[in-house]
Amino acid sequence: MSRPSTIDLLPTEVRDSLHAWLRDPAITQIKAADRLNALLAELGAEQQVSRQAVNRYDLKMRKVGERLRQSRQVANAWIGKLGAAPQGQLGHLINETLRTLAFELTMKLADGEVTDESMPVIIDQLKHLSLSVVRLERAASENVKRDEDIRKQERAKAAEAMASTAQQSGVSPETIERIRRDVLRME
């Protein structure tokens, strides 16, 4: 495992300032590095950060940001395609993604890209990912059930309010009951 960069070792609030400077298109990496070192000196830190470290960190953050952006685009495309599809379909998609990851991992192992030493760590990560998927699927199912229960409660309240108003208006009990049943069946 590689050692943490000098920037990774900075206090969170200092690193947050660096993030803001790097996101600002008016501030170059050189200016960001200079501001960072000035802030560190102001805080009494003996540590200084090189411009190369700022450059490497910025490139790393941009690469991570690009991966995240691509991941979100893919997720949004699938969500758009599935829409309000049953949870099972989304679960199938996630399971298929896990199978693909496992296959790619097997291919990398066969090609010698993954070593026997790193394999247990990767398998452990896949196991944790799989457990997370199971938990997410369960939570999503519970949310669907909870939403359905809330809608049923709202329909029951609406049916009672309608029945009360209809009764005060002199509507026959048979008609009130038929309307109540129709309101309770609404989706």
Task: Describe the model.
With 187 residues, the protein is mostly helical. The protein has 2 domains: 1-83, no CATH class; 85-187, no CATH class. The chain has helices spanning 12-23, 29-42, 51-82, 87-110, 119-168, 173-185. Helix 1 packs antiparallel against helix 2 (29-42) and helix 4 runs antiparallel to helix 5. The longest helix has 50 residues, at 119-168. It is elongated, with a radius of gyration of 28 Å. It starts with 11 loop residues before the first helix and ends with a helix.
Query: What proportion strand?
Result: under 5%
Order of helices and strands: HHHHHH
> What form results from the Cα inertia axes?
elongated
Residue-averaged pLDDT: 81
Specify the helix fraction band. Answer: over 70%
Number of strands: 0
The rounded Rg comes to 28 Å
- Could you describe the largest sheet, including whether it forms a barrel? none
Structural class: mainly alpha
Distance between the termini: 55 Å
Number of helices: 6
Low-confidence regions: none
Task: Give the domain tally.
Answer: 2
Key structural traits:
2 domains, mainly alpha, 187 residues, 6 helices, 0% strand
Strand and helix layout:
Elements: H1 12-23, H2 29-42, H3 51-82, H4 87-110, H5 119-168, H6 173-185
Helix pairs in contact: 1-2, 2-3, 4-5, 5-6
Task: Give a short overview.
This protein is an all-alpha fold and about 190 residues long. Helix content is about 80%, strand content about 0%.
